[in-house]
Amino acid sequence: MTLPANGQDHFPLPGPPPLAGEGDEVSLRESRVNSLLLAEKVSKHFGGLAALSEVSFSIRRGEIYGLIGPNGAGKTTLFNVLTGLYSLDGGQVKLDGHAIHGRKPSQVTALGLARTFQNIRLFA
Description:
Helix content: 10-25%
CATH architecture: 3-Layer(aba) Sandwich
Radius of gyration: 17 Å
CATH class: Alpha Beta
Strand order of the largest sheet: 2-1-3-4
Distance between the termini: 37 Å
CATH topology: Rossmann fold
Number of domains: 1
Structural class: alpha+beta
Number of strands: 4
Largest sheet: 4 strands, antiparallel
């Protein structure tokens, strides 16, 4: 293992990105333009249940994020919407500037965004 140049035993993580609505309008616009993956006001409902309600985020090329939350928080639903498995009820998702709404999962995969399914089989 190679230690970072600062001699510490860990790598410092960058601070969190600004939240939607923070910063000036120019930086928000730049974030939208430079996004590899952009979600704006993404919503998904199952009957009367709002699984996703106006979820927005921007991920630029080279950034790495994790998605953490309790059971039922909408993590899997978000991935299913992002990869085209579920259709959007509202909002938009763009991958490298291409809208993915209405595309088949195979078409979204061809653009470069795919998922794997959790399928635990201890004994076949």
